[in-house]
User: Fold this.
Amino acid sequence: MKSKRVVVGLSGGVDSSVAAFLLKKAGYDVVGLFMKNWHDESVTLSNECPWLEDSNDAMLVAEKLGIPFQTVDLSNEYKERIVDYMFDEYAKGRTPNPDILCNREIKFDVFLKIALSLGADYVATGHYCQKSQFTDSTGKQVHQLLSGEDRNKDQSYFLCQLDQQQLSKILFPIGHLQKAEVREIATTQNLVTADKKDSQGLCFIGKVSLPDFLQQQLKPKKGEIIEISSDFEPYQNPQKGGKTLQTRSDKLQYSREDGTLVGEHDGAHFFTVGQRKGLRVGGMVEPLFVIDTDVETNTIFVGQGKQHPGLYREALKINIAEIHWVRQDLSISSGETLEVLARIRYRQPLQKATLYQTEEGLYVLFEKPQSSITSGQFVAWYLDNELLGSGVIN
Assistant:
């Protein structure tokens, strides 16, 4: 019987290298494919060419494993679907998550289609997450996206925008392993990536930091930094269904008159809620944190200390068009609620929350107020270790 073909996204890192090894060991017909998603050398931080280095490592791993290897250039699609979207969001004063978008738009859409055109039955990546499936009462197969066994590395959050069709075609070969076990396997197999550090750059762009990337694309514009006192009281919160829901989208509407001018910045679109670095304002009792930004007036509002009330919200809203259910069979209708566990950023411990579906959108009400809820980021919700859905924070 002919073995199933799997195209592995070889990134030049240790995780995808071990994923490819495990699949080959399990008897799959494995093909390695490297995605080149950026070629604008003007935004890298040095003269080195990281994608070439990563591509080389991926090729050496494929050679070592004895599997076919190809490079595909997806830089046009990446610019159109990820980079342009990112700049548009930042210009609006929102903070997008390029890694989640990259998984939804590039790895598991464009890349997946290329893999299927090469005769693949599945694609595989080195993500630390797992999947399962069952057959429902109608005979339909339902796919489940589960947290990785290594809770410190669990990457299910980054895959929160995947759908049933995509999940049906994906394998996660290392999801049941700890990171230390992955490195041990790579060392045992003499893979060139065994001791390679995990990449910290933008998804697939390489060694380039987000602030530098933004600085080269969005124009600087001088504006005021206004400090808001911790005892400042904003307007009263609206009532929704008998509950008070102060959400990130209920912009606090701080004004210049509500606080004190403490400094100057180079553009409100370079800052995000909860940010501490880059403010260049000293002489305070406690560090300053961004508690809100206004790109229309180009003003940043800051507060002293991690406990400043301006950093905290008890709820957030997702607009109707931005609600995404991985498990559509568990989605709720207007007027319904669902108790879940939720996170608003990668590696954040899961928080108890309740989903409220209304005609205007989906509200996520947390049991405890959350710090730095940020417009443009994603919230993902779970039952136990299964990711059920996600949405863009309004």
Observations:
- The first strand starts at residue 5 and ends at 9.
- The CA atoms of residues 120 and 272 lie 41 Å apart.
